[in-house]
Amino acid sequence: MNDALYGIANAIDRITVPVGRVSALVLPILMLVIILNVVLRYGFGLGLVELEELQWHLNALVVLGCLAYAYRDDVHVRVDLFHAEFSPLRKAVVELFGGLFLLMPFVIGIAWFAWGTFAYSFSIGEGSPMPSGLPARYVIKFCMFAGFVLLGLQGIAQICRALLTLRGAASSYPPVSR
Questions:
Q1: Rounded Cα distance, 59 and 61, in Å
Q2: Is 159 part of a structural domain of the chain?
Q3: How far apart are CA 131 and CA 133, in angstroms?
Q4: Residue 108 and which of 12, 24, 68, 142 are 20 to 30 A apart at CA?
Q5: Is residue 37 part of a domain?
Q6: Is the pTM of this model over 0.70?
C-alpha cells in the first residue's frame, strides 16, 4: 500500500514539476512584452491590443502552469494561523481532510466549468472581440482546464503523502527532488 501511494505521488510529480518549470520560464517573456507595451504606449503613444491580450494570456499561462508546482512545494498562499506550529502528524490530517473536502470539490467544479467554457469556445472558433486582438481564445480557455486538472492531480499526490505520514511511513520514502 505504501509503495503504491509513493508511486502515485511520484508519477504525478513527474508531470507537474516539468510543467511548472516550463511555465515559470514564460515570466521573462511576459516581462519583455510588458516593457515593450509600456514603451510603445507612453514613449510613442501607440497602444496595441495584441500586446495587451498577449500579457493576459502569458500571465494566465504562468499562473495556471505553476499552480500545481507551487502546491507541491508548499509555497502557495496558506491562510492558516496554526499550521506552522502543528506536528507533522497533525499537518498530515489537515492536508488529508483539506485535500479531500475542500481542494478536490473546488478543483472538480472549476475544471468542469472550464471544460464547458473551452468546448463552447472551440466549437464557435472564438477569438478576441477586438478586430486586432489575438485569435483562438479557446487555447487559453483550454489552459484553464489543464491547469486545474494538474492542480487536482497534485492534490491527489499530496493526499497520498499525507496518508504515508499518517501510516508512519513517510520517513521511509525520500522526497522527490525539487
A1: 5
A2: yes
A3: 6
A4: 24
A5: yes
A6: yes
Contact 72, 158 (CB under 8 A): yes
CA dihedral (171, 80, 77, 153) in degrees, to 10, reads 50
Instruction: Assess contact for 67 and 24: CB atoms under 8 A.
Output: no
Q: What is the pLDDT of residues 94-143, one digit of tens each?
A: 999 999 999 999 999 999 999 999 999 999 999 999 888 889 999 999 99
Would 178 be classed as within a structural domain?
no
Q: What is the signed CA dihedral for 155, 158, 160, 161, rounded to 10 degrees?
A: 180
Q: How many domains does the chain divide into?
A: 1
- C-alpha cell read off for 90: 497533525
Cell numbers for 153, please give them: 492531480
Category of 78 on φ-ψ map: left (φ > 0), alpha (ψ -120 to 50) or beta: beta
